[in-house]
Amino acid sequence: MRRLPLGLAGTTTGIGSLPFNSSKSAIQSIAEPSPEVPFWPQLPRLSGKEGIIGQSLGLVADLIEPRRSGYGYQVKEGRIDAVIDAFHQSNGHLPPENASGFGAFEEAMRSQIFPSALAVKGQIQGPINAGSVSVPQDPTVSVRRRTVCCHRLSYFSDRVLAFNLARITGKLIKKLAGVE
Predict the structure, then answer these.
(1) Residues 52 and 135 sit within 8 Å (Cβ to Cβ)
(2) How far apart are alpha carbons 11 and 17 in whole angstroms?
(3) For residue 18, what are the contacts with CB-CB under 8 A and spacing of at least 6?
(4) Are 104 and 23 in contact, with CB atoms under 8 Å apart?
(5) 33 — phi, psi (to 5°)?
(6) DSSP count for the chain of H helices, then E strands
(7) pLDDT at 1 > cutoff 60
(8) What is the mean pLDDT of residues 11-40?
């Protein structure tokens, strides 16, 4: 079993979703308890777009709708190819209207609000939440197209996390290496 680097052993971090209406308040609430492993806050009380699903699906908000029954969303009829294309073409950037907490976190890292940071934590929807997006059982849509849509959503979620954490960790790595 691999051990954590000495500086990370016993450190704390957070879940991500915080009960604030202000990204400034969220950042302040992270700085004291999680200085070594700060995390990007999601602010679902500020907007539904800020929640874990809203952040991921903001890219296709006009192509999906809430499920008629149960939890989650479904692709609007006739829009599956547009959803697949949107997920495939995106680099994973989170727009500010869906991620003000991420923007504030990125600025906090740049402004040295977390001077003792050794790592950062981010989160985005996982397979259970990604599974909450369904493709209508439209007989004109093949099983293969429905499968491709689900696969692209999962791949897109990974891309969102990688793209946005890379924006922050590149700076952190330079800082820890003493290059900055």
Answers:
(1) no
(2) 19
(3) 26, 29, 30, 41, 42, 43, 101
(4) yes
(5) -80, -20
(6) 6, 3
(7) no
(8) 91
Dihedral of the CA atoms 92, 98, 101, 105 (nearest 10)?
Answer: 30
Contact yes or no for 133/113 (Cβ under 8 A): no
Q: Which two tokens stand for residue 99?
A: 């991620």
Residues contacting 31, CB < 8 A, separation 6+: 38, 108, 113, 114
Cβ(90)–Cβ(82) below 8 Å: no
On whether the CB atoms of residues 94 and 137 are closer than 8 A, the answer is no
Residue type, 142: S
Q: Are 14 and 33 in contact (CB under 8 A)?
A: yes
- pTM comes to 0.75
Nearest residue to 58 via CA among 164, 141, 139, 136: 164
How far CA 8 is from CA of 30, 32, 83, 105, 175, in Å, comes to 16, 16, 40, 20, 16
Structure tokens given for 19: 């009960």
φ, ψ (nearest 5 deg) of residue 140:
-85, -10
DSSP 3: P
Task: Answer whether 101's CB lies under 8 Å from 50's CB.
Answer: yes
Q: Which tens digits make up the pLDDT trace of 145-158?
A: 767 777 677 777 77
For residue 98, which amino acid is it?
Answer: N
Residue that the structure tokens 């197209």 belong to:
145
